Amino acid sequence: MNLKSFAFLALFPSKSSAHIAVAGSANIDTFLPISHLPQAGENLTLLPNTHPTLDVPGGKGCNQAIACRKLSNQKVSFLGRIGNDEGGKIIAKVLEDHQVDVQHLQQCNDFPTGRGYVFLEGKTGRVSAVVSGGSNMYGWENFRCKTEKEVDSLLEEMLIDDSDHGQNFKCLLLQREVPEFVNLILAKCANQNGIIVLQDVGGEERGMTEEMMSLCDYLMPNLTELNRLVKSFDGTAVEVDQTNHDSIIKSANILQKHGAKNVLVTLGEYGSLLVTKDGNVIFQESCKFDEGEQIVDETGAGDCYRAAFAVAISENNNHSIKECMQFASGAGALACLKEGAVPSIPTRNEVETLTQKCFARPTIGSIPRGGWGGKEETFPHTFGSRLNSMKDRPELWPNPVDNVQEWVKRQGEIKGLGCVDFNYPQHFHSWTSEEAMEALVEAGLVAGAVCLRYPSKFARGAMNHPDEALRREAIEMTKEAAQVAKDLGCDEVVIWSAFDGYDYPFQVNYNEKWDQLVKAFQEFFTVPSTGAALLFVKEINRLNMGLTLDVGHMLMAGENPGQSIAMVGDKLFGIQLNDGYTRLAAEDGMMFGSVHPIMALEIMYQLQQIKFTGHFYFDTFPQRTDPVQEAEYNIDKAKMFYWAAKSMDEKVLKQITDQHDAIGAMKVVDNALYPKR
């Protein structure tokens, strides 16, 4: 059986009402356009015909609060300090204009609003800044005296409203342009209440205590900040650069030894890299702009990235961490196209458009078809091959072939191969779908389908097991496989049970088993032939339910594969190509067309007749041959049979079929397979 999803949702399609709190700095920035960033002792003048840009709202806390609000419809509360001056009024107004809750933005009479002086390199948009903390640094003394109970009360006041009693509040975003004791108090309180704490490491150059790091669910430094933090714990640590992922991972591991959980390192144009508390590593490349788009100002890029990540992770849409990083990358990139941290913050629609353009997962329909070789005309189908075959003949591969990752790498060496079909759950015991996606990208492949292989506990049946609890478990496993398929960017789930649950007459109630299967598939194998399977699909009556036919299985069932394909028609969602000697209950898994070449020709002809659009999957068993070479041979043979079928004269075939002309049919076959030279 085959389940197909017709359309996947956009990267971040829905906007749930989870709340975000941002605590941090608010500055008034002055931008100074210069030719290059100054060296020690160097005096510079502004670029010719330029002037300072004055009184631009900024500061990490202010930037991130506005960014969170623009990138979602969530309630965003800002906890900060401003002076009793013109700068403070500008800050308060811009936050209110962007519908940020400023109930806890407190005015200080003794200290001015913080100010930033930003050196902006004209040609590249690179920046360097000097910040005068003002009320951001010195306006919190009354907060230091608050008890935990008072802080709890403050957060409740910030985060709970009358409409939903704060049940959807998800995360707290912190920076380091305010005193560390402020972050520590807030992080403790959030941690105790199950609120996700995200710590932007940017701001004042200072170390961080192990206690503070242990309270943060995500520690988010850039590379400079990562090096600085690591050196504060290990003075002998060597600084790393953006392209040395192994060194970045080692640096993150050092922080994790001192209490950090998930370390997300931003690398500017080189992307971002997350080292999780479980030891997994996820790399996300940066968004690439079209030629002609120019970077203007990088001031707010980091703030936009972190705010977007907070928005994505707080929304209850089952986004993978990889997708959260993609959304953040899009926001950070767009923030470079305008001058000023707040003016450059993009809208959610702008971010979604860019991320879809940059990161939309390739699908079977969007990649070059057929790989290498063949006719000048592009081959219209993608090829996949049995992943488990990559563990055969291990002596022909330089690395141990004892894991799925290595099998994917080996398939990446097959010329002309375009996709990988995974088995679920067997191929996902040792890695996640995010890691599988990384491996596919590295191998230059995409996912073709996820194939259900119910484990041996379902020997008495899967969705028709006599135990209702196990039937339910099989259904849930099928749904899990569909989610993995979605995570991998493919729209096909192939469901095959090795166990029908019975062997003898009178052992089961056939009608009851049939009804159980129909009911199970209507929610989201006692099916002995193509005809019965087609009847089954018709009774289920779901548009996204179809069949996958395996040539070897059809031979085992005594069927004519070409006839079965014609009978299934547009309900054929998948085809598995192989060959074998026609023996009852024997699947040889031999190379396509090796035993029945005329049958192979008719298979390709019938696939063309029904306008089959799926990929060609080779379900073969190269136990005594090189699996890579065998897959390449299968690809070449499939192309040969395909083009041979394409060359057959439809008018002549019509005359032959009208007269049931056997000799004429064989002559047409000969001309197609062995054209006269």
Question: Any overview of this molecule?
Answer:
With 677 residues, the protein is of the alpha/beta class. The chain is built from 23 helices and 21 strands. The strands form three sheets. It has a nine-stranded mixed beta sheet, with helices on both faces. It has an eight-stranded mixed β-barrel with strand order 1-18-17-16-15-21-20-19, surrounded by five helices. A hairpin with a 5-residue loop joins strand 7 (114-121) and strand 8. Helix 22 (650-659) packs antiparallel against helix 23 (662-673). It starts with a strand and ends with a helix.
Question: Can I get a quick summary?
Answer:
It contains 23 helices and 21 strands.
Poorly predicted segments: 3-16, 161-167, 363-377
**Class of secondary structure makeup:** alpha/beta
- Proportion of beta-strand residues: 15-25%
Radius of gyration, whole Å:
31 Å
- The number of distinct helices, counting runs of at least 4 residues, comes to 23
Number of strands: 21
Q: Which assembly state applies to the chains in this document?
A: single chain
| N- to C-terminal distance | 43 Å
Q: Output the strand order for the largest sheet.
A: 6-5-2-9-10-11-12-13-14
Helix content: 25-40%
Largest sheet: 9 strands, mixed
- Average the pLDDT over all residues and give the rounded result: 83
Shape: elongated
Break the fold down into its secondary structure elements and pairings.
Layout: E1 2-4, E2 19-23, E3 27-34, E4 53-58, H1 60-70, E5 76-83, H2 86-97, E6 101-108, E7 114-121, E8 127-132, H3 135-138, H4 141-144, H5 148-159, E9 169-176, H6 180-192, E10 196-203, H7 210-215, E11 218-220, H8 223-233, H9 245-257, E12 262-266, E13 272-275, E14 281-284, H10 301-314, H11 321-334, H12 348-359, E15 383-386, H13 404-411, E16 419-424, H14 433-443, E17 446-453, H15 468-488, E18 492-496, H16 510-523, H17 530-540, E19 545-550, H18 551-556, H19 561-568, E20 572-577, H20 597-609, E21 616-618, H21 627-646, H22 650-659, H23 662-673
Parallel strand pairs: 2-5, 2-9, 3-7, 5-6, 9-10, 10-11, 11-12, 15-16, 15-21, 16-17, 17-18, 19-20, 20-21
Antiparallel strand pairs: 1-18, 1-19, 3-4, 7-8, 12-13, 13-14
Helix pairs in contact: 1-10, 5-6, 8-9, 10-11, 11-12, 13-14, 16-17, 19-20, 20-21, 22-23
